[in-house]
Amino acid sequence: MEKQRYNISVFTENTIGILNRLTIIFTRRHINIDSITASETELKDVYRYTIVLRETELQVRKVVAQLEKQVDVLKAFYHCDTDIVYQELALMKVRMDENRMTELEQIIRRHNARLLSVSPAYAVFELTGHEEAINHIVADLDTFDLLEFARSGRVAVTKPMKTLEAFINELV
Amino acid sequence: METQRITGAEAVMKCLQSENISTIFGYPGGAIMPIYDALYDYQETIRHILVRHEQGAVHAAQGFARAGGHTGVVFATSGPGATNLITGLADALIDSTPLVCITGQVASHLLGTDAFQETDVIGISMPVTKWNIQVTRAEDIASALAKAFYIAASGRPGPVLVDITKDAQFGLTDFHYEPCTEIRSYRPVPVPDVELLAEAAALINNAQKPYLLVGQGILLSQAEERLLQFAEKTGIPVASTLLGLGAFPADHSLYVGYLGMHGNYAPNLLTNECDVLIAVGMRFDDRVTGDVSRYAKQAKVIHIDIDASELNKIIPATVAVHADANRALELLFDLVNENQHGQWLQQFRDLEAVERAEVIEPAVFPDREKLNMARVVNELSTWNKQHQDLIVVTDVGQHQMITSRYFSYLNARTNITSGGLGTMGFALPAAIGASLARPDKTVVAIIGDGGFQMTIQELGTILQHGLSVKIIILNNHFLGMVRQWQQLFFDRRYSFTEIVNPDFVTIVSGYRIPAQQVDAGHAFSQALETLLRTEGSAFLECVVEREENVFPMIETGASVAEIRLN
Ligand SMILES: Cc1ncc(C[n+]2csc(CCOP(=O)(O)OP(=O)(O)O)c2C)c(N)n1
Considering the entire predicted model, what is its pTM? Predict the structure, then answer.
């Protein structure tokens, strides 16, 4: 079976240490996590972890079963990229260069990035998109002095219509 | 609602009382002193067994849980007390044993400061517990323990750890105990899918060579009776995993033996000839399957387990039923036809005759005067056929495999061993726990000379509490199982497996336990009789052949069909 990119969504109770319990499952199987994000969901006290990795579907299925086995996990799913809507956020801090202002502005416009903060010394802008889009803007900034660069993991919502609440109601 | 203001420590005791806990295995220390102080007032109703090492406490609680079917409870202090629990927790997790371990912790304002005897027991125990929690306020103790007891015993059972800071033990709280019966993120009792069961029944009804493999799930769900009815109705041969021994009576005409690396010949070999494999409450451990790519490829597989993550984990199932074994067998019973599989069963019997002639007879009736392991176990089993009063606890190694092969387990919960983890040192403390859970039974621990010395200090626990455990040491002067592998696969290079032993009889006598040694076959029966007829604890060291090997054997990487007889 071929490795492919999968997105695992894990819905958990808000308990201390749950993140550790989740990551142990990946570590034990020597699986590298490409990115992980966490936030509260539309339901109070229910947290959502979005975990992106490259693996075979078989392995992902087993991992999801292990995740769901954890007492504090409400539900875990996995999706391939086509079944979700997802985004990443990148922040870039670039040294100001008087002579190349227009060039920089063009790059920002071309990539639909957004200027967040400007000072005589630097400019900070933001881009939201898929990782490829972010890679492209970074490539275009190659000749600029990129002082700082930070990007988030993926956040994702799924395309299927069933709501989380419906799943949780089934649980109790 | 009636409430009263008490300390957190006393709340712990009241929780245990509410859960009808009769027995605690533990060891005190600084961070758990308030709880021990509260325990002082509860000695009339709750028995505390002072072990000699915290690992012993966990294994004793495991033996208690597995022999009696209750949840085992452990007390330990912070730091080294807590870290000493880890081996036992790992063992209990992999062998699905319900435990609630309560550890003391440094005061909450000291957490994370490297205070004296502070360890991150929550972090360390996370991979080896079903669930764990740290409690820092007295008022949270009751709800944490209620959850702990519920989680430990429900679904696929397992060990749970509750770490309570010292200030929470000292703090005052209103006490009210409400047993936990539901956690929204945790569904321990699956509702079996009736359509899948119908599919399973259709496979079973059309099978020519159906084959039942049963594991500890039968015992954990108390499905022994239903398994018996199901097997008798369908006429399907039954084989057992190591932890399933005793779930189906070994003297039943449908019982075909013990599965796995050192199991019986027929049940391993015919795994690759059955047409429908029905696995109930077992998890296809690698010691059972051998090479999975050549395991039961010809068969349609029905797998029933309460743990969904076990389904399709190792062996892909044709029909995977997520269910409690007892419930699934109950529902299946009505769907399956009465049947007999005489010819198929005969295939097992024919191979059994081969094993009997080539391996079993020479092992249990040796023509030598020197004592050997199989003979010891066989005579013990003969005693049990008459008296039906034994619980057999084994340690890990050759003696464990020999016992699993040559002891006929006739009743449920009479086999206690460390299966998944293979923890040397398990047997002596586990036997202590078993003896406390089942005072009506005679508990026999069979231990190697190596493993005995891993937890030998628990003899002190036996002495202090006047416990009754019959201890048999099979002394081959080697770490026998490793030596066997060195002989077979490492060119007889016996690298650090020869073991120089103390005079066990003298040591055990020092603990005031009647002790004898035997090394000649003719003297053994009398020695065994003496051991079993002694009131209270007794000890028998059997000096056995030094280089006896356990056969049959499925070598690592081999298929079950390649099981060798010698
Ligand atoms: C704690 C622990 N350490 C090491 C092992 C590896 N091991 C498995 S069997 C065995 C030999 C056991 O020797 P002994 O207790 O004398 O029993 P025998 O095999 O001779 O019956 C060893 C060292 C283990 N299972 N557990």
Answer: 0.96
